[in-house]
Request: fold
Amino acid sequence: MRIEIIYPEIANLLGEHGTQQLLEKTFADEEIVFTSFPDLPQFFTSKVDFIYMGAMTETSQALILNLWRPHAKDFRQQIDGGLTGFFAGNALDLLGRNIVYEEADTIQALGLYPFDTLCKRFDRRNEIVRGKFHDFELMGYRSQFTTHTGDSSAHPFIEVSNGSGMNPAVETEGIADKNFFASSLNGPFLILNPEFTKWLFSLFGYRGELPFEADLLAAADLRRADLSRHFDQKRFRK
Reply:
């Protein structure tokens, strides 16, 4: 197996060092490719089983898009061909049509999905989001000053039950397209949701356990119980 961690030195905000460590420990006996900026990710041109990218600064977003735009069709072909991957945090923004700043220039994104990212720097949302994907109960933390306009629910990932979706008009969060997933939630997400993560890794043939799997599962159960009490109390008070 070949696992590619994309730009770990700059795409590592909001706890995503933890996801990198999870991947390193899970796939310690496999080939892990650490692609540093400004190298082009290997999945564009060669066989990779799983790609991962975390959150980054807005400056890094612009630099990465300048490098990747000529390869947007290659990215689309890889997804259509069944590439397994997960993009966390504002790595999701790279995949839409444009990143629109309220008082700055609009940046053209990759155009893989029919949404735009609207950035309002002084309108940050911080919240816990809970929802479902298939039979998985998922949760993550949102801390962002962006919303996603356009057809942001064209490839829905999480059906949101508590918290907000990609914008106030939809009740879905993120992208699920064949074996490729992206979510603006952090946590880090793959550590918070070990059942989903193990299933995700199975899509490209991994059959082993996660590192510290029993502890990850026990912690996930505690979080779910705590969130249920919290959200149920809020509904009761209303």
Observations:
- The chain has a mean pLDDT of 93.
